[in-house]
Design brief:
- By secondary structure, the chain is α+β, with helices and mostly antiparallel strands.
- Helices cover 35% and strands 21% of the residues.
- The chain has 10 helices and 18 strands.
- It has helices spanning 3-17, 27-34, 59-65, 77-90, 118-126, 136-142, 146-167, 176-189, 251-270, 277-290, and strands at 21-24, 42-45, 50-55, 70-74, 95-98, 129-132, 200-203, 223-229, 232-233, 236-237, 240-246, 303-304, 311-314, 328-331, 334-337, 341-344, 347-352, 355-358.
- The strands form 6 sheets. It has a 6-stranded mixed β-sheet, with helices on both faces.
Length: 369
């Protein structure tokens, strides 16, 4: 999908909502609609135009990156506000939508005494009736085009290479922190623009913490090591989790691991176009519950991935919206036992017209090192 097609999607929403313009302030959404990767910008979209505003730090970058919009470089926030107000008045824009989950009272500047209510703030800022527009661009971003999926696929392939590299570094005595740093250095040296999130490396009992942070805890024989990480390519994220065992392996390790693997397989087999998101969670969760571990699986089975690591759709059990071709999702059941350890297996997949294309290819079978 081209930038122009994305802007056309916004304009269709303007018409449907009967508003005259949308002021975009979320930087991820500005990147999606213009290609700009800087940290400060505004984008005003009307039925017939798109105007991009940033400051002098980004004059050259904006000229290189921004497409589909007229580029304007301003000296100060006040100048941006004046320019927006001038356009609103000049084009007689009566209703201007804004990203209500992103704009803050502080957007007007430190010298301004804010009136109560964010709608009044925006009315003051642009000089028109302000209409909250939560999630408009995020809804467009939910379904990925072929180019976006190709970028996510490359990020997933780089993640596969990262796991293949780091699993060979696991041995008794190495710390979680050392493994996390080694993994990140490898991924960046191989071309990652950054990490999708701070990598999770959790050894032994720490693997029972779904969002563990790497510590100086050393890997020990007879325990799990859980890796949850992702990297960024072309601005798009990957996400993968693998859990391995530092030998010796016992029956409980194998039993719980095989349960989680079967749960993930059930979730992957269920995910296809038209299937309610909650059904994917339900299919995976049923396997864990039937094994007697219901209380050990305490999070949703997955989420969307794109320019951000967590996007729509959500694959929680209560979600009824159907999966669509172009959704990129994770399927990541887990089982966690305080004081012993935990297992999570996560793959990234794109929903296709025919089913599911699993993008992460690292081995899912139990690895003992």
């Amino acid at each position: 999908m081209s930038i122009d097609s994305r802007l056309d999607g916004v304009r269709r929403r303007l018409a449907a909502e009967m508003v005259d313009a949308l002021l975009v302030t979320n930087m991820i959404n500005i990147r999606y609609l213009t290609g700009f990767t800087g940290t400060n910008a505004y984008l005003l979209i009307t039925p017939n135009s798109a105007r991009f505003y940033s400051d002098g730090r980004y004059a050259v970058q904006a000229a290189r990156q921004v497409s589909g919009s007229e580029v304007n470089i301003c000296v100060s926030h006040a100048e941006v506000s004046d320019a927006l107000s001038s356009i609103v008045k000049g084009q007689k824009l009566r209703r201007v939508a804004y990203e209500s989950t992103d704009v803050t009272v502080a957007s007007r500047g430190p010298s301004w005494e804010a009136p109560p209510g964010l709608d009044k703030v925006m009315t003051y800022l642009v000089g028109a009736e302000a209409v909250p527009a939560a999630g408009w661009i995020e809804e467009l971003r939910e379904v990925k085009d072929a180019d976006e999926i190709a970028s996510i696929r490359r990020a997933a392939e780089l993640g596969d290479a990262g796991f293949d590299y780091i699993r060979k570094k696991v041995k008794p005595g190495v710390t979680e922190r050392e493994l996390a740093l080694d993994l990140e250095f490898f991924l960046r040296s191989e071309g990652s623009e950054g990490m999708s999130f701070d990598p999770i490396v959790a050894a032994a009992e720490n693997s029972a913490l779904p969002h563990a942070q790497p510590t100086d805890r050393a890997v020990e024989s007879g325990g799990f090591v859980l890796f949850d990480f992702g990297c960024i390519v072309d601005g798009y994220c990957s996400d993968m989790t693998r859990t391995l065992v530092v030998g010796p392996l016992d029956d409980r390790h194998r039993e719980v691991y095989e349960t989680v693997l079967a749960a993930q397989s059930a979730g992957l087999a269920t995910a296809s176009p038209g299937v309610p998101c909650g059904d994917v969670d339900r299919a995976a969760r049923r396997v864990v519950e039937d094994a007697g571990y219901a209380e050990a699986f305490m999070h949703g089975v997955g989420h969307g991935v794109g320019l951000q690591i967590h996007e729509a759709p959500s694959l929680k059990i209560d979600r009824k919206e159907p999966l669509e071709p172009g959704h990129v999702i994770t399927v990541e059941p887990g089982a966690y036992f305080e004081g012993w350890g935990g297992i999570r297996i996560e793959d990234l997949a794109a929903v296709t017209p025919d089913g599911l294309d699993v993008l992460s290819r690292a081995p899912r079978e139990l690895i003992v090192v």
